[in-house]
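Entry 14. Structure prediction run on the chain below.
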Amino acid sequence: MDVLIKIKDREGVVHELQAPTDMAMNIMELCKAYELPVEGTCGGMAMCASCQCYVLNDVVLPEMGDEEEAMLSEAFYVKSNSRLGCQIPITEDLEGLELELAPEY
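Output returned:
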C-alpha cells in the first residue's frame, strides 16, 4: 500500500509523492528516489542533518531518538518542528504527512 506525502522543496514547489509502505524506506530515501535535493551524506545514520525537514501538519510521527535529538541540537536552521528524514520510517500512519525541506548549509 502506498501513502500520499507532500514535500515542499527549497524553491517552494510542493511535490505529492506516493510512498510505498512495504519497502522499509524512510523519508530521506523517498526524497532521493524522487530526485528531490536531499544529500543523506551519512547514509541514514542520523549523523549529518542533510535530510532535515520541517513537519507542517499534525500527523503522528515516531518518537525522536537520542541520536536524532543530538544531531538536531548541533544542526543549522533547526526549528521546533524539525526532524531528520532518515529517522522517519514510511508507514501507513504517515498518510497525508506534509513536510518542507530545510535550507542547505
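Strands lie at 2-8, 14-20, 52-55, 82-84, 98-101.
Filed with the rest of this week's runs.
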